[in-house]
Amino acid sequence: MPRRRPAQVRARNQRQPRPTAIHGVPLSTSRALDRLDRPRLSSGSVRAELLAWRRAARQPRSVLGRQYNDWAEFIGPFARDALEQAMHALPRRHRASLRRRIVRYDALFRDKTVNDPTIDPSLPWWSRRM
Question: Where are the annotated segments for Disordered (predicted)?
Fold first, then answer.
């Protein structure tokens, strides 16, 4: 009986970790995020940032409109920054499915907040809301 080469045995024993499923996004996009090999842009971290952006966007208008509000000033914009980085790093076909998911929450956040004209206009729109 022929013997297998050690490289073949090792290749069969190595398993790829399962990507974290992101609700509403195909599993191929999660795999593409994991292939980027960036810890900040893994499928698990993008899932967490998407959940944080969703929570921020779903806050009531009365909460988002308060002065010195963590949801509108820190939590939401930091999560949206990470999601934007992920979209720029992904290939075009995988980017579209993630963008469709994010656009829904962008619209909610824009409807519940107003533009702050005193903030630097070179910042992204989600960082200039209050």
Answer: 1-29
Q: Which two tokens stand for residue 52?
A: 């944080």
How many structural domains are present in the chain?
Answer: 1
The continuous run of DSSP H or E covering 2 comes out as none
pLDDT of residue 13: 65
Cα gap 45→49, rounded to integer Å: 6
- Whether 118 is in a domain gets the answer yes
CA distance 114 to 86: 26
| 21 within domain boundaries | no
Ramachandran angles phi, psi of 115, nearest 5°: -70, 140
Residue range 82-98, pLDDT digits in tens: 999 999 999 999 999 99
Torsion of CA 110, 114, 119, 124, to 10 degrees: 10
Its pTM stands at 0.84
Residue ranges making up the domain that contains 87: 39-127
